[in-house]
């Protein structure tokens, strides 16, 4: 990216990704350029692929669940090209690191709404929980334990009793009890890893 091009991108992203200062956006763009250099050349320097994205979130935040990481990638990749652009990178991290509760609720709901129909169905809850829970071998079938958790979640969160969660259901449940934000699998970095990432990336302003 040329110096002039970088300045235009930074100025634009400082306005759109409102949770970061200009110098912080510069740091994230610099990191983006480093990640692009690692990526396969198929995107011609325009962005980086799923593999680089997953490795980065694993190294930065300890996120290891493949199913969740795939969903996080899809949520960042708004234009569905299989490539994370600089805009998608900075705006996605703005929510991940510093998003408001409202922004994080929309983000988590999108992660769990696997088919994008505006609801989290029983099957979607089951799939997410099955991937994210480490169920110990026992007499009971592991799938049965997951099904029980789905029923408990529905009882607690399905306010209109239609057997699935709308965003309205999800929002009400999370506002009543914030811990339910990641009810169907961890898709946000914890505070410690977020702070560590910020300290590492923002410790110096790129020249």
TrEMBL record:
A GO-annotated cellular component: sperm flagellum
Pfam families: EF-hand_1 (PF00036), EF-hand_7 (PF13499)
Keywords, alphabetical: Calcium, Metal-binding, Repeat
Keyword Repeat tagged: yes
Domain EF-hand intervals: 64-99, 100-135, 145-180
The keyword Lipoprotein is assigned to this record: no
GO molecular function, one term: calcium ion binding
Family matches, as InterPro entries: EF-hand-dom_pair, EF_Hand_1_Ca_BS, EF_hand_dom, Recoverin
Name assigned to this protein: Calaxin
């Amino acid at each position: 990216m040329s110096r002039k091009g970088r300045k235009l991108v930074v100025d634009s992203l400082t306005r759109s990704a409102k949770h970061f200062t200009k110098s912080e956006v510069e740091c994230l763009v610099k990191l983006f350029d480093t990640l692009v250099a690692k990526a396969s050349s198929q995107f011609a320097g325009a962005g980086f692929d799923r593999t680089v994205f997953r490795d980065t979130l694993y190294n930065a935040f300890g996120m290891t669940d493949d199913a969740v990481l795939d969903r996080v990638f899809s949520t960042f990749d708004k234009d569905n090209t299989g490539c994370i652009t600089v805009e998608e990178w900075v705006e996605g991290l703005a929510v991940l690191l510093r998003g408001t509760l409202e922004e994080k609720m929309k983000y988590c709901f999108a992660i769990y709404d696997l088919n994008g129909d505006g609801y989290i169905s029983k099957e979607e809850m089951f799939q997410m929980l099955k991937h994210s829970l480490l169920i110990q071998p026992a007499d009971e079938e592991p799938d049965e334990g997951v099904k029980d958790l789905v029923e408990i979640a529905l009882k607690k969160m399905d306010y209109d009793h239609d057997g699935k969660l709308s965003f309205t259901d999800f929002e009400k449940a999370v506002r009543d009890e914030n811990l339910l934000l990641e009810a169907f699998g961890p898709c946000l970095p914890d505070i410690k890893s977020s702070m560590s990432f910020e300290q590492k990336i923002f410790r110096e302003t790129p020249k």
